[in-house]
Amino acid sequence: MSLTNTPNANRLHIALYGRRNSGKSSLINALTGQNTALVSEYAGTTTDPVYKAMELHPIGPVLFIDTAGFDDEGELGRLRVEKTEQAVARTDMALVLLSEGELSLEKQWIEKLKKRNIPVIAVINKIDILKDAQALAARAEKALGQTPVCVSALKGEGITDLREALVRALPEDYERKSITGDLVGDGDLVMLVMPQDIQAPKGRLILPQVQTTRELLDKKCVIISTTADRYELALEQLAHAPKLIITDSQCFKQVYEHKPQESLLTSFSVLFAGYKGDINAFVAGAAAIDKLGPGSRVLIAEACTHAPLSEDIGRVKIPRALRARYGQQMQIDIVAGVDFPKDLSPYDLVIHCGGCMFNRKYVLSRIEAAQAADVPITNYGVALAKLTGILDKISFAGR
Amino acid sequence: MSLTNTPNANRLHIALYGRRNSGKSSLINALTGQNTALVSEYAGTTTDPVYKAMELHPIGPVLFIDTAGFDDEGELGRLRVEKTEQAVARTDMALVLLSEGELSLEKQWIEKLKKRNIPVIAVINKIDILKDAQALAARAEKALGQTPVCVSALKGEGITDLREALVRALPEDYERKSITGDLVGDGDLVMLVMPQDIQAPKGRLILPQVQTTRELLDKKCVIISTTADRYELALEQLAHAPKLIITDSQCFKQVYEHKPQESLLTSFSVLFAGYKGDINAFVAGAAAIDKLGPGSRVLIAEACTHAPLSEDIGRVKIPRALRARYGQQMQIDIVAGVDFPKDLSPYDLVIHCGGCMFNRKYVLSRIEAAQAADVPITNYGVALAKLTGILDKISFAGR
């Protein structure tokens, strides 16, 4: 049987930071036993962060982020360091590689990462060629307040210790996050309403449908799946009402109107808003929609630069619904990719995409930015539910 | 919403054949409007066939196979031509590019392709720089018995004509093949028994489960999905028995013993044996298992060189079952990848993998090879069903 892979967005993102030539790429190779990262003896080989999906025993599917040296210089070097800075927003765990010499830059980066609640492991690499690894370790312990793990990526020494350190430092919520939370459990009947008309390429299902199906099977639920136009027929096939109905948002009204009274109802996009972000923040942010006016300014932010389907929601549907309510003059700015404004203060509301291609950390870092600027933030799915008047009829996971 | 892509195995495989520097890579770029194939003005840039997944309007998802020139020379050249020859086995449609000069090699290739029932379109590329494209076209028509389509990949001329020619030449069975055939239709209730314990990576479903679910939704069936350990509970949730139960082969016995009498039963691997091959040939081939003896010689052939899961079936389960029946001395050869023996006559039976990573054409070409050598051929799923005595209890699609 052929397998499709764990989506990158679901992998633990482990980023490596350090000076040029500190051996970040070699360390990834040593950890995975593969020769995947390009290793060169010249400093500054890695420019844009390189993402490498791997199985890392015993953690499971991870995504290594191999960054450019944070001490890079010159015009191009500054650009590289900026890209390295941007990688912090999606880092679940960090390895900071120490080099001989002074440790002020390393200290600065460790503090920056810790401030964002990212677990950090300090690593001394190249113990096979360092003049005095022990002295560096002692000095690092003093300067950084943590004991570095000593390894030689080249000789494979200390790699087991480093794996163990990674397992010990795993973020607390790692593996705990679930799509459907406590809405359903063992033996529950769950209905999925999944129109296939325009959404997925031939022979495929869109990722949220696959991930939700898999989670429900893992939870030992029984799943009944149907398109919207056979939804009522599907209900008739059942001996009793489903505990929960999860629908594509676009047919929410139909599903709501014909649903058995005892069935809970939610949508894929609302569940993913919680799975990939902070549902409480998004629901609170959606309340701000009622307080907008003709002179309000709204920021619509997409994580992907190419998002043909959600584009329709973010660039057409949501602006149309907002302008229908508050007038055509309302100022709505749309940004994509990493172009998230540093200054959010001009905005009355931020509406973010589902972020399905990114890890949760990345979406949370944008929520934090909005909260720091005191600007309410919601997301596509929750905003659409609010704008169509159904947000109060929906069940949420993990609130 | 993020999308997963149409699997390559489900795409129409369009291969380009021609001499070195006939402009095969440029033509792919012109057809897709993308700059994906590496184009060089030096002959012989393409070595191993290059596979490029694309959306080709109006056909849909295709896989272009960009081959090395069939006139390549020298030791390395002969190796390249051999790879080009191997690409024929998976070609659904072929474009043969004509070059100025004599056309004997082109004629030879067109005949080779047509002998395998592969639709062929002759193409004259570079009409912007050819000395006399019309004369070449007239000559080709005479020599090859078909009118070439004249294009300039560089200038984009004639590309619309070529697209139209492709649509006209589509293989007859293109788009007609279905996984579940006429076993179920609109409104039917179908149960999927899908244990998730060891099969798929976290957060994913294996490809046959995704493809079957999608096809059933497209057919407007209602689907009830369950793991094996909640199978009886799932049946209890239903107002009536499902029309069809599709189970993972590994829990066939349990599912069969508890199935409602009126429900048809089949397995994912048996359905895919028909979808990806010729179910009649495979069932006939499975009958040969009864006629083996201690001195028989069996070939087990895997399409993938890395197949961690099916490996277990082909390398462990099937040999074990065969030897349990006919003795430990039975000779069982295992080959993987393109190492399919040219001479099959020493064998009494060929058992092929499901070929889920390959297109149907490729599996059919191996069936043809076995039939030409008068050796019965079956596949993993059908052989397992036969060996466990359930083949006569199963429903087939499209027999």
UniProtKB/TrEMBL annotation, chains A, B:
Species annotation: Luoshenia tenuis
Record domain Hydrogen maturase F tetramerization: where: 281-393
Pfam family membership, one: HydF_tetramer
GO biological process, one term: tRNA wobble uridine modification
Domain named Hydrogen maturase F dimerization: residues: 180-277
Gene3D superfamilies assigned: 3.40.50.11410, 3.40.50.11420, P-loop containing nucleotide triphosphate hydrolases
Protein name per the record: [FeFe] hydrogenase H-cluster maturation GTPase HydF
Lineage top rank: taxon: Bacteria
